[in-house]
Amino acid sequence: MSTKLSSHHIAIDSQGYILAGSPTQPGRTMQRNTVFGNRFASGDRDYTDLSFWWYWAQTDWSGGIKNNRAWEDDAKFWWSTNIDTFSNPGSFQLPYHMALAIAPADITYGVTDLTAGTNCSVAGTATSFVGTDDGSVIGKAAVFKFTALSSYTEIAGSDFGGSNNQVNQILGHKENAWILTGGAANTWAISYYDGSSMNDVTANAITAVTGSDFKMPHAGCELGGDLYIGGNDAGDASYVFIVKTSDSGANFSSIVELDSDAKVSDIIGYKGDLYYLLFSDGTFTLKKYDIANTADTTLYSFKNVSPRLTQLGGRLLFESAGNLVITVPHSVGGEVWFYNGSDLWRAYYDSEEKKNLSEQTEATSYLREGGAVKDGIIYWGNLVFDGTSFHNYIKGVNDDAGVDPFVPMFVTADNIFYWHGEASGSFKRAYYEADGTYKSSDNENFIVFCEDQNVSTIKKLAHSATIIFEKLEANEEIIIQYSTDGGATYTELGTADYANDGDSVTQKTFNFGDDVVYNKIIYKVFLNSDGTSTPVFKDISTQFLPIPDYQYRWNLRLDCTDGFLLLNDKSKDIKKGEDLRHSLRTSFMKKELVEFEDIDYAETKINDAEPEKTDTTITVDSTDGFPEQGRLRIEDEEILYTGKTRTTFTGCTRGYRGTNAADHADNDVVSNKYKVLITDYKESIPLANEAKVGEFIIDIELIEA
After folding, report:
1. What's the CATH fold of domain 54-94+443-546?
2. Whole-angstrom distance, CA of residue 301 vs CA of residue 286
3. Would you kindly state where each structural domain of the chain is located, as residue ranges?
4. Tens digit of pLDDT for each residue in 604-661?
5. Closest residue by Cα to residue 16 from 611, 444, 492, 573
6. How many Å is the maximal CA-CA distance in the chain?
């Protein structure tokens, strides 16, 4: 029960005290504890008036996507899809429209997959090639040459038949197009096209390899004027080889021979040496062949790897910004690692948080089929590395419906060609970015996540959001939505469009509705267009007021006197003034939390055999002495109630003001006491002090914990 009851004004740490006051020096004052000082808001520091509304701003997108979901002023955003964030640094816009370059109908062999492609110099002329596999119906493995975006012709003699059922890679060497095919035969596994005819050099490669039929070349690269080719023997699953030729395939020499059941998934020249990936049982092993010292070493093994194909020559290993870039695909998404010749580190990964978003597939980077390089920029399915940062880019859903993402296949001087699977079949079509036309949508694909998690434990009252953009053209619009529940639901905040804002507005402010309170806010930004142009979105800032869980501060003036009169029946307190004084001073010096029973203190007990933390009605012995609505404390849990009956508190909000809802027991004490810290202490002695009477006036400050 209370130590205060009716005999004292207040109680601190189970000790009752009498207030000492006057009209000019009140014995008790209470106010909200100050939570804001003279400081800038965390975020961009360019604001000068933060006396009431605070700001959070995203003023640059050039840093690309982040894996840490917490907001930082780091020029990065959470993630996007079908958005170009790197062509126009510091802003984002729509990507170019994906136009059909070649459909399976253009290849006369029915349902046929496009498997590989390249643009290389053949007989001194840059030429583009695409390879196929034998498909599931009628099709066959062959190589097609094209001179226009939709004009293809089969290279005479490139029908590899059913025994070589897939073109694994096409690459240039000695002004020839080299074709690596995989199948069951030991002919046409390695061949080249010189501009007029096909030439099979498989037998020459077989001669260089000990005891192998060399039926399955998977990947190749050119380094120092030599062509290196890696693969395995389809007839001997535990045999891996790398061979090289310095001429047009008349002579081969063996470089690496391994007793292994792995496959050479990709191979590249980097800093004068050969690097290659071996795939086996869900593991990529990165190996280095030191050409000068003829030494083959293992650098690192990547676990839980799941490429779409085990042979992705020219599509997994790249060089960018002086680093070797390694694509490490998983079943969904994956990782990108860098190696600089001595150190290896992970530069990008698809975080689990992204995969747990409601639109999980939108955030996936589609690394399983590798990528391609154009103008020093690496493109994967929905990921781009521009030499500095990673960006989301193009994903599967586009104007032409499909079930597979757009995966970069090969690069020409003018275009990147992408694979894309049709919904109605297993084959793939080739697409390219149509320069001058943009992806259009109806609020379906173009979204960017950016999250304000600045001081995320403090609630914020949203006031407005301001966006900055370039002048809009006809049929362009920017739609802003927000979520305060982690992305589960979104509410539209406003739209900037040409129809209402014309071609002169470059900044627009949207006011939030009343009582939009959040810990974290996520913005979803839609860019829409008819395809003839693109909106260009630059900045967004949020104006808000921090509203933390308010706490109280008391200033008390206490009479600590020998034998002062109590409130109940005017009897004298048995405690001496010196004892009362030292009790307060000790608590102050020890900086310990103490319990405080204020002037309106009341208490009762739970009268419920099985109280639960989810109860919104709390049954007690009596609610006498408690106000009609207010706060309760049971052990360490604080509860807000909105009504009461004779024996119940109703409309209870459990775990109020940052405490945790908890189960309690029958007869647990229910009160309105506080836990406080004594933060200031001052004492004075009245001038009329009698010689043998201890009389002190103690001024203390209490702050609610």
Report:
1. Jelly Rolls (2.60.120)
2. 6
3. 1-35+558-599+688-705, 54-94+443-546, 96-438, 602-672
4. 999 999 899 999 999 999 999 999 999 999 999 999 999 999 999 999 999 988 789 9
5. 573
6. 122
